[in-house]
Amino acid sequence: MSSRAGIGWDSHRFEEGRRLVLGGIEIPSERGLAGHSDADVLTHAVIDALLGAAGLGDIGQHFPDTDPRYKDADSMQLLRSVVAQLGERGIAIVNVDATVVLERPKLAPHRDAIRAALAGAMGLPDDAVNVKATTGEGMGFVGRGEGAAAMAVATVGRRG
Ligand code: MG
Fold it and tell me: pTM of whole model > 0.70?
């Protein structure tokens, strides 16, 4: 089975009155991320990594942020839709590794729940999905608390 890798990167601004949703899990936080959808920056990076590995473009082509259908969209539903598209093409996901970059809150208490939620949406065992978290060490837009970013790498293989 030949394998292919894809990368994903995303960032969103923090805003008062928004929820902070990462990997489909709502994280208690004073501020959340702003965006057309639920602004789940981690899930968006994972989606782009999967689309990249499958050679299927990017999240903006599949779910335009100008389309009212995706206003406040549940990004985990978008992820499930991408996983289904890969499945229809005979493409199996091997593993996903991701890093969330944000200054606060701390993600450690939520990491297992995020991992399990992403794995569930992709039909993978938890150990095929890894979620890491780091800060900006006070530097740049992450360090100043202006926003959060996420990056992901996915490996896929063709069935049969
Ligand atoms: Mg995004």
Answer: yes
The distance in angstroms from the start CA to the end CA of the chain is 7
Residues shown for the chain: 160
CA distances, 54 to each of 16, 94, 133, 143 (Å): 36, 12, 25, 33
- On whether the CB atoms of residues 83 and 121 are closer than 8 A, the answer is yes
CA of 151 to the centre of ligand 1 (A): 11
- Helix (H) / strand (E) element for 121: namely helix 111-122
Q: Measure 127 CA to ligand 1 centroid, in angstroms.
A: 25
- Of residues 78 and 65, which shows the higher confidence score? 78
Contacts of 25 (CB under 8 A, 6+ apart): 110, 113, 114, 117
140 alpha carbon – ligand 1 mean position (Å): 19
Angle between the N-to-C axes of helices 75-88 and 111-122, in degrees from 0 to 180, rounded to the nearest 10: 40
DSSP state of 36: S
**pLDDT for residue 159 is more than 80:** no
CA 106 to chain centre: 17
Each residue of 91-128: pLDDT tens digit? 999 999 999 999 999 999 999 999 999 999 999 999 99
